[in-house]
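## Example pair
The file below holds two records. Each record gives the amino-acid sequence first, followed by its structure token line.
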Amino acid sequence: MMMLVVFLFLALLKIVCSSYHIKDNSLVPPYLSPYWISYGSTVTEPQFVRLTSDVKSSQGGIYNTKPLIARDWEMVITFHVHSSKTLVGDGFAFWYTQNPPSNGPAFGSREKFRGLAVFFDTYANQNGEHSHDHPYISAMINDGSKLYDHDRDGTLTELAGCSSNFRNNDYSIATIRYANNQLKVSMKYQGTVDPVDCFTVDGVHLPTGYYIGVSAATGDLSDNHDIYSIHTYELDVGRKDNPFTDFSQIEPSADQEAAPRGMVFLLFAYQSFQHRFLLTFVT
């Protein structure tokens, strides 16, 4: 009986200890950590970091100066995007990149980067038919050879995405999890108990030692983009990697990419034509 109790205790301990909070890579009130640097329009208040105020043509961001050395990790970002207006823009982004974010046209940072970006887009820039509604969350993996195309909402380089009603809640929580080469994004909203899955993508390859940060931008339309906290966790997922592998040298890549939004209708039309042709041929 005692052995069973010990076994259950050890099993529970393993579950509890499967993630470890990394203080130096986390952003929490009252924001006194020396490892975070802000730029642009960012203003630090006692209870939140405001990347942009509800004014036009603003860019701001904040990034961690300590590279993240965890092989598998999870970010829990609590934020508040809000305005009293109905027409708003543009949104904010989370970055895990070789170089820290800095002023640029991609939600307040550079449109060319190496690593991972998760975009929280509140305004549809692309004209024509859309395959999703805004606000929209999407991910992009970049080896430094591609540009984020803001005019097309990044659809040509999108890895995966989902529509999300994260605006004008008192708070929303985004969980970005990278473990065993799988990227998963989920959302939790004010007044809800369970998180909502946004997307899960296997075959994602990211190196260690990159920098984390968030940035936001407004254009002709505007919004308040507030960050309450970023909690960073190292995950113990039982990897069995070669201990001599230098994970900092992994090339950022993904085994798949989502079909560009402008191509979704063409793909559907082609498949429908192919199906009708086969039916005609068989009959």
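Second record, same layout:
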Amino acid sequence: MLVMKLSPLFSSGVACGFPSPADDHKEAALSLDEHLITNPPATFMARANGDSMQGVGIFDRDVLIVDRSLTPGHGDVVVVALDGQLTCKILDRRLGQLIPANDKYKPIPIWEGQELIVEGVVKASIRYHRGG
């Protein structure tokens, strides 16, 4: 079940260098549900496990926002069931393989007759910096 909660959004952004006292202007409330989940019935969340996708900013324990309604395209980050095992990789339609975003791992070829189900396209990921 998805629950919507509105939180304030600071329109001027947050300085990641030295803080600016002039940067305290609030904008309208921001709903993370509306921002991250555009099609709730087709969206699910999954927790990343491992380091094979670090090159695209997905780290161990991140929460993936996955949309089943999107058509997976070449270069999309996808969650797939490959021979019954879920994995998150970059879809390479041209070479017919799943590409990890970490040089420690090899691409996974997709063979004819292999059971491959694209569960959805990863739209976003959430990383906890404390707790979670």
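Notes on the second record: The chain is about 5% helix and 40% strand. The helical segments are 32-36.
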